[in-house]
TrEMBL record:
Keywords: Oxidoreductase. The keyword Membrane does not apply. This is NADP-dependent 3-hydroxy acid dehydrogenase YdfG. SUPFAM superfamilies: NAD(P)-binding Rossmann-fold domains (SSF51735). It comes from the Bacteria. The keyword Cell division does not apply. Belongs to the short-chain dehydrogenases/reductases (SDR) family. It holds the Pfam family adh_short.
Length: 267
């Protein structure tokens, strides 16, 4: 997969990984729809990128908003080749998470991906090509200490990406799933569990203790490299693969280790 000349939509592109992806794609001669709930942030990114980008605001968990993104891309640049389902939110803490927190996290972290694929895949099947990149998290392969909604929905995002690849991978549709650990974004600045500072601090400490905190630009470079090789699992932190292997090889031992890690963090 080469990105030059391709038309892309990147959600959550007003800042963080999404913005870095937009810059990296345009640097590679792609044209990008910069989508974000914060339309002012999206406009700033698009303005900086020039004629190869356009900004659209809206909640990408809303199917109509995604349909408008696709229509805008087609009108301004042509048929969509690449879709980066990157927008994501933290959520609540544990069993005391509210129904509203669960619902919003499921909508943004999972259903936004499902609805985008629902709209894009039929056209990609007709054309015989398309690339769907899901931003999940290492929490989707391992877990997230401190936040049940985040952990559960990121597992679901990985599961949906797997299903999408298995179902359509031999029909010209490529799928990749991005699963980083710590990245220097708003989530690590208090937005992981915004309504519970204590649980949020625990969750952020767990992420920062587990490995290096990468820049969004480093992650974006890794994504484009992995897409060129059409790898499904994108791991900016290579050590996540060994952690995942350890989990699969002895689940009980892994859970015991995570309990000990959590106890150390709390102490």
């Amino acid at each position: 997969m080469e990105i030059a000349g391709k038309v892309a939509i990147v959600t959550g592109a007003g800042a963080g990984i999404g913005a870095a992806l937009a810059y990296r794609l345009v640097a590679g001669d792609a044209r990008v729809v910069v989508a974000d709930l914060d339309v002012d942030s999206a406009r700033k990114v698009a303005a900086d990128l020039g004629d190869h980008a356009i900004a659209v605001g809206g909640d990408v968990a809303n199917e109509q908003v995604v349909a408008e993104l696709i229509a805008t891309a087609e009108r301004e640049f042509g048929p969509v080749d690449l879709y980066f389902a990157n927008a994501g939110i933290g959520g609540g803490p544990g069993l005391d998470s509210t129904e509203a927190q669960w619902a919003s996290t499921i909508e943004v972290n999972v259903m936004a991906h499902v609805r985008a694929a629902k709209l894009l895949v039929p056209g990609w099947l007709e054309r015989g090509s398309g690339y769907f990149v899901s931003t999940a998290s290492a929490a989707g392969l391992l877990t997230q200490i401190g936040s049940a909604p985040y952990s559960v929905t990121k597992h679901a995002a990985v599961g949906f990406a797997e299903w999408l690849s298995v179902t359509y991978g031999d029909k010209g549709i490529r799928v990749s799933c991005l699963c980083p650990m710590g990245v220097d974004t708003q989530l690590l600045s208090g937005a992981l569990i915004p309504d519970d500072p204590e649980a949020g601090a625990l969750a952020i400490k767990a992420v920062k203790t587990a490995g290096a905190v990468l820049s969004p630009e480093e992650v974006a470079d890794t994504v484009v490299e992995a897409m060129a090789a059409e790898h499904f699992l994108i791991l900016p932190h290579p050590e996540v693969l060994q952690m995942y292997r350890n989990k699969g090889s002895d689940y009980d031992r892994w859970i015991s280790g995570m309990r000990r890690f959590q106890a150390v963090l709390r102490a």
